[in-house]
Amino acid sequence: ELKVEQNPLFLSMQEGKNYTIYCNYSTTSDRLYWYRQDPGKSLESLFVLLSNGAVKQEGRLMASLDTKARLSTLHITAAVHDLSATYFCAVTRYTGNQFYFGTGTSLTVIP
Amino acid sequence: GAGVSQSPRYKVAKRGQDVALRCDPISGHVSLFWYQQALGQGPEFLTYFQNEAQLDKSGLPSDRFFAERPEGSVSTLKIQRTQQEDSAVYLCASSGTVNTGELFFGEGSRLTVL
């Protein structure tokens, strides 16, 4: 079974600071997804990373993928309160296959 | 529709009751997934449909769980003789993007079994 680990599980950071969330997975895959979930809400797609070395940026968030290290990072730049949410990474072996989700990183941005 | 629609949003059932959860995927999406999300956890795979064919049901936790998608569009997840451990949010997702495989999730159905 493909295992996905995220760290940290909980992150409290001050506004304006930078931080990185890590996502490691156990089996070869070249497809990795990042989702955001607000309390009581569904999952919102943030990034789709489909190849080694892929880097995508949207606002204060930047995601990257290293398939050789089986590692993806989600970097937060100059955090703002609106970024408070739980972030999940997910991996799939191939299109149409199930997604394996990490346990999530609960981010709280403090003013 | 514009997005994945799930109903009911909230369901309270007494232990032993049967429940049915509905998912209406994005129009034209071929692939449909059901996930179970326990409190504070990531979503766990239950089952997968491509059109009306159930291609993978390896994540269904017991034979009390049954899913169908008879016409390749709307899907129903049925749980028979509910138990307290079935309490969770049940998420439906659909995908029509062959290249990226990106999943689009519904708001979920929160099931509480008393």
SSE arrangement of chain B, N to C: EEEEEEEEEEE
> What is the CATH superfamily classification of chain B?
Immunoglobulins
SS elements, strand count of chain B? 11
Low-confidence stretches of chain A: none
Structural class of chain A: mainly beta
CATH topology (level 3) name of chain A = Immunoglobulin-like
Tell me, briefly, the overall form of chain A. globular
Note the main sheet of chain B: 7 strands, mixed
Mean pLDDT of chain A comes to 92
Q: What is the CATH class of chain A?
A: Mainly Beta
Distance from N terminus to C terminus of chain B (CA atoms, Å) equals 33 Å
Mean pLDDT across all residues of chain B, rounded? 94
- The CATH architecture category of chain A equals Sandwich
String of helices and strands of chain A: EEEEEEEEEEE
Computed over alpha carbons, the radius of gyration of chain B is 13 Å
Highest CATH level, the class of chain B: Mainly Beta
Name given to the CATH architecture of chain B: Sandwich
The CATH topology of chain B is what? Immunoglobulin-like
